[in-house]
Design a protein that fits this description.
17% strand; 3-stranded antiparallel β-sheet; 4 helices; 3 strands; single chain; alpha+beta
């Protein structure tokens, strides 16, 4: 079994949750989202994030707006919709439950 593949699948499984969490406070453009993920050691490339942002937008969880930039072309800023905010709160609860369950299981092997 390939450990890198397993690690990539684990990261991929939480990527949507991480993106929605990043957008919880302020609207951001894709490069800002990528930067936040990279700073957190989530290895993500542009080719992964754009289709995911489009899928989240099509699901009604995100909206976007164009804003002029002083340093280049206009930027597309993404933000949470009301549906996205509710969805994120549900994911917060699910994440807390999952983290607790995983901690119980993984800590039990160390006792």
């Amino acid at each position: 079994m390939n450990i890198e593949n397993t690690k990539a699948q684990m990261r991929k499984g939480v990527l949507e949750y991480c993106i929605l969490s990043i957008l919880e406070g302020d609207d951001k453009y894709a490069s800002e989202i990528l930067g936040t993920l990279k700073d957190a050691k989530m290895l993500v490339v542009e080719g992964t994030i754009y289709p995911l942002l489009t899928r989240l937008k099509n699901a009604g969880l995100l909206n976007y707006r164009w804003e002029e930039s002083t340093s280049g072309p206009p930027r597309k800023y993404y933000g949470l919709t009301e549906t996205g905010k509710v969805f994120l709160k549900e994911l917060d609860t699910t994440w807390d439950e999952l983290r607790g369950a995983v901690n119980l299981v993984t800590n039990a092997k160390n006792n």
